[in-house]
Structures are given as C-alpha cells and as structure tokens.
Amino acid sequence: MRVPRSTAVNGHEPAAPDADPETATTPEAKPVRRRKPAGSAASAFADETPLGRVRRARRMNRTLALAFPDAHCELDFTTPLELAVATILSAQCTDVRVNQTTPALFARYPDAQAYAQADRTELEEYIRPTGFFRNKTSALIGLGQALMERHDGVLPHTMAELVKLPGIGRKTANVILGNAFGVPGITVDTHFGRLVNRWRWTLEEDPVKIEHAVGELIERKEWTMLSHRVIFHGRRVCHARKPACGACLLAKDCPSYGVGPTDPATAAALIKGPEAEHLLELVGR
Predict the structure, then answer these.
(1) Of 13, 41, 95, 137, whose Cβ has the fewest other Cβ atoms within 10 Å?
(2) Model confidence at 181: pLDDT above 80
(3) Annotated catalytic residue within 119, 136, 171, 272
(4) Is the pLDDT of residue 39 over 70?
C-alpha cells in the first residue's frame, strides 16, 4: 500500500509577506523565470523573525506540494507490521533494495508469531541483501516476541508503546504512525535533517530536537506529507554534494542557494526521478 500520490518565483529578492499562514492557499502551477540573487543568499535571511520563519517554512511546504503532489512512503507494505519490518530493514539500505527483499519475506513470515518463532539462520538469509542482517534479524525476532507477549500479536498505534518495541525508535515509530495509522508524524531521516538545516528551519542536529523544531513551524496535519515531500526533494533535487540550485523551485526561499550549480542547464541535468520533467516544467525549462 502506498500513501496516495507556490509557484515559487526564483531569485532572492525579499518576498512580500504571506497572508495568514493558516489560511494561505496553494498557488497555481506556471513556469517561472530565474533571477540571479543580489549578494549572499544566506545574508538575505540573517534578520528573519520567528514569524517570518514560520511563513517561509509553510510557503516552502506549499511549493513542495506543488512539486511532489504524489509524494508517498516509498516502502511497499500492506499491513502495519509489514511497514514496521520494512522500515527496520531500511536502516543503512535503500528503499529499492528493501522492496526487492520483502515480498518473499512477507510471504514466509506473515504475522508476529512467525517472526517470534523464526529460525535465526533462515531469517538471516531472507534479509541478507539489506545489510546488517544479523542485527536486523535480532530486531525482527525480538519484535515478534514482544508483540506476542504484550500486544496479542498486534502492532500498537501510539508512540509510547511503539518505541518500547525492539528495533523501533522514534523515527520508525513516526513512519508507522503516519503511514499505517494516519497519525501525523515527522520522520527525521538523513535527507530530512540535512535539508531543514540547509533551509535554516533549525540548526539542531539531534533528530528529536529537529522533529520538535520543525513541528513548531508546520501545521500538525501536514507533518506526514511534509516528511514525504522533503525526502522526495532530497532524493531528487537537493542532493547532499551537488544540489540542483539552478533548477529548484525553492530557490527564492533557500538561504543555501548557490551551494550547488546555479546555471539552469547544469542544474537541470542533476534532477533525478520520475518527476524530473514535471519539476523542470515548473521552473520554465
């Protein structure tokens, strides 16, 4: 199961204040022209007020919604337990590799009891392609046993209960809550933490502190989809080493504009993923 799949004006001249952030609407899609920013991008945000940061963060979220209308959890699952297992396997592994591994795994281990009673050697072989398979095997067997002992084999749906289970920390719990139970949550993975720091939404580095800081900027109902959009943007546009600054819809609102190439043609070549054509159309290319 997958979660169902403003116009930014590029450049860095100060933008006019938004309408009230709670009532602002998503802008219509249309090509935009790029303008070279005057001076340092970061300096344009040096005197940003807390309210200005809230408005900018929410404006960026609306722009991301325009860029990635089909953003979703990229792990394949049909039950909350399958999502929990897939998320545990995704540590230090790509979602693509996890999705290649889980069909056979889910068929062999359909419920908590199956994991609780699993033969360690056999389970290790099923999940070996995801890396760190010995630790992950311990987590999956422990998860199955804990679910059988404490929850009648059913995955709970509260943060407090989830984080007490083997293999499930706060990040994994937010993935489960947001995508399997519809409870808003902010998933601070590598991409999310990197981007919100790059955007100066927060300078915190601890994932829990990042989660709380971003939660104060963005409406709670948006938390789960915000997580998907930011992760999509990090994988497709705002790469760690060479972000596609010159073809980014968020350029106007990004204090780190210029970290990557600003030439539109050079930046366009860096855009990845099935949304590439859509993203380039939105910036007028």
Answers:
(1) 13
(2) yes
(3) 171
(4) no
The separation between the first and the last C-alpha atoms of the chain, rounded to the nearest angstrom, is 33
Catalytic residue among 189, 252, 263, 272: 189
- The percentage of residues in the chain with a pLDDT greater than 90, rounded to a whole number, is 83
Percentage of the chain exceeding pLDDT 70: 85
pLDDT at 280 over 70: yes
Q: What is the mean pLDDT of residues 198-205?
A: 96
Gyration radius (Cα) of the chain, Å: 20
171 has catalytic annotation? yes
Catalytic residue list contains 263: no
